Amino acid sequence: MRGLLRLALLCAALLGALPVWAQDLSALARLDPAASSITGDADEVTVTLAISQPVPWRVRILDDPPRLVMDFREVDWSDAGRIARSGDAVTDLRAGVFRAGWSRLVLELSGPFTVQQAGMQTAGAARVTVRLAKASHGAFTAAAALPEPPEWALPEPSALPVVADESGGPLRVVLDPGHGGIDPGAERDGQSEASLMLSFARELKERMIREGDFAVTMTREEDVFVPLETRISIARAAGAQVFVSLHADAIAEGEATGATVYTLSDEASDEASRTLAERHDRDDLLSGVDLTRQDDLVATILMDMARTDTTPRIDRLAGALAAAIQAAGVKMHRHPIQQAGFSVLKSPDIPSVLLELGFLSSGSDLKRLNDPAWRDQMQGAIIAGLRDWHAADQALRKQ
Ligand SMILES: [Zn+2]
């Protein structure tokens, strides 16, 4: 109880004139103190915080006294006093509203530490991990002296990029024929995945344009090598509302046959955010939000949030495509929807799927890919699936 009381008192001190928890508490993310901990010794501290949902956050070190400061958008810290603590590197814990819409958690430190690692896992509930290591006085002072970004305030969640609602306009589709150029993809009987996918995509594009309601861009129009990241950039430049990568890989084990819709797995999503955030050309990564002046951590969080928005849309996209393919009577793999860490699916804010039309390792799949009637059936199914998804997606997003 002593901790709670202290927390309440310090909240009041931090808040100044602001009323305690004046915000709508129902809107707050909640801390799960039982799943949170602060552990460590004189050299290293690990802070783990379990929060009911991902929120934008940031972390920094301040001096006088040495402390770790974490700002979160609307997290209710009233249970922070119940976080299990071991070791004596953290001498005090405080929490309160830092400013409207933002709450701050402060860990007072026994000496100079710097942040070695900070991250938030955002699959389902959020899990924040911050690792501190004992630092030299110089390193600590430098970290603590870093200026506050002039406008570190993050955009409102509603300002996060969403694909513009353009009811009535054509659906902007990017078709990505897998492989190409020096990378033929799977090969069998003198045929390559790269060339089969290119001709399939060309036919599909023509038909989509003929049928109307679609604006189609292809990541390659000929037999050239296009790096995976360039494919994502092409999609972004085209203002893609949906990205469909087309493949027919060979699988060595088992008897893979039939079409499969792949989405990006959660685990890969998080890693993708991290890797993408480290890149220089951040404005390429997330349309609508200027990330160039944000630090890496903030960039990661914003992308995670975009992904939180995109993930259910991708799941519905995969479902709609699989349903349409099945409805068209096209053979599907016995696991028609699967997840994998395909790099080309890593756009945080463009719903992306990878369609294995079949497997070149299967003779019957290869035969089907070469059959114009089968291709026509499959192309019709993809178009129907995209239409169904788009209609449902727009209806849901208007709610
Ligand atoms: Zn492939």
Topology overview:
Blueprint: H1 2-15, E1 29-30, E2 37-40, E3 44-51, E4 57-62, E5 67-73, E6 75-76, E7 84-85, E8 90-99, E9 102-109, E10 113-121, E11 126-134, H2 137-144, E12 171-177, E13 187-188, E14 191-192, H3 193-211, E15 214-218, H4 228-237, E16 242-247, E17 259-264, H5 266-277, H6 296-327, E18 332-340, E19 352-356, H7 363-369, H8 372-398
Parallel strand pairs: 1-6, 2-7, 12-15, 12-16, 16-19, 17-18
Antiparallel strand pairs: 2-3, 3-11, 4-5, 5-9, 8-9, 10-11, 13-14, 17-19
Helix pairs in contact: 3-8, 5-6, 6-8
Structure description:
With 399 residues, the protein is an alpha/beta fold. The protein folds into 2 domains: 2-148, Sandwich (Immunoglobulin-like); 171-398, Zn-dependent exopeptidases (Aminopeptidase, 3-Layer(aba) Sandwich). Helices cover 32% and strands 27% of the residues. It is built from 8 helices and 19 strands. The strands form 5 sheets. A 6-stranded mixed β-sheet has the order 15-12-16-19-17-18, with helices on both faces. A 5-stranded mixed β-sheet has the order 7-2-3-11-10. Helix 5 (266-277) packs across helix 6 (296-327) and helix 6 (296-327) crosses helix 8 (372-398). It binds zinc ion (ZN). Zinc ion (ZN) binds at residues 178-179, 185, 193, 247, 249. This is N-acetylmuramoyl-L-alanine amidase.
